[in-house]
Amino acid sequence: MDEIALIHSAQHGDLDAFNSLVLTYQGSLFNTALRILNDEELAADVTQDAFLSAFRSLNTFRGGSFKAWLMRTVTNACYDELRRKKRRPTTPLEPEAGDGDEMDTPRWMADPALTPEGQAEADELEHAIQHCLDNLPLEFRTVVVMADIQGLDYSEVAVATHTPLGTIKSRLARARLRLRECLQGFRELLPTAFRLLEEPTR
Amino acid sequence: MNFRDVELLSAYLDGQLSPSDSLQLESRLGSEPQLQAAMDELRTARGLLRQLPQRRVPRNFTVTPKMTGLKAPIPRVYPSLRLATVLAALLFMITFAVNGFAPLAASRLAAAPAPAYGIGGGGGCSNCGPSESVPAATQAPVQPFSALAPTEAMPATQDNSRNLGTPTPEPAPKAAAPSLANNQQVPISKGTPIPFIWQMSIGLLALICGGAAWFLRQRNEREFRKRWNKK
Fold it and tell me: Is this structure's pTM higher than 0.80?
């Protein structure tokens, strides 16, 4: 069954059809929420809420990119969560080292395919990028996560964020500039290819 | 280089510039090393983001009927059956009401005209005093509706009124006896307007329709639960 047929069935209350769509897009939605919130548990909860909300408001989908429409629900759920967090700040449950500091490379994020050294480097780079993402204003972060991490095109990002195309272009350019400035602080972590790329410019 | 240039470079990297704008920018890139350096920086940032690993989802985010509050589909005939049940039950109650109130209504009708027959049109009879026509009227409420027909009631009361004037009381019991006998001959059970068999049929119809609706609904819900428990 193709996507349009699945959406049509789901709009008529077919939960099986909707769940087929969930399985297709859950990775994108979860990773978007994860990069915006930087909290795996929260991202999972938000993704579940977003799918539930999407099912309930499926009749408002009027065609176009279904992925962008889903992204919009997850973005709204993330914004709600961040607003809620701002109102009621909580203590993070991340694992702590013996001295009470949070561990830089939590064990739960480990990729078994990498060597311990490679894993450590990848984790550090990922944390550096995530740190830079976290420092971006929310609307910049959302746009850059959707366009550069999830690979949505400009029009899809515009639909997902309910923002004009011109604003998307501008926000993306600003976000990339700020990220570039931030990542300069982590030069030693950048892969060789990226270091070589930047050598001639200096 | 201004921010407009950065915007152009960013859009150029994503292939979002028109062909003419792209050509113009490419010619500038060849002649302006600063612009080229800025583009390389933007490309680096974009490349780093694109190579971020996609995390595996910690669980499936499929939605269950419990989450959505979704209920088992209602069988197609269910609304018709439910309506039939309600109507039949209503009709059943109406039949009971009609049969129950009929004798009461009859007795009220009987209570009103009875004195008029005996006294001869005197509603305002102030000096009537206790007479034998009064017992005739008080007997009326127990009479069934069919016994109130003037053809049958009149002779009895006329006989009574005539007997009042006669000096010898002997004929009175004789005259009253046939009227009482006439009244007792009317069967009370024949007075129910809706036959018992009809009542029972309507009641049975309500039960069958209600039972069928309940059974179909339960079966659908069982199948629905079984289907989702399997998953």
Answer: no
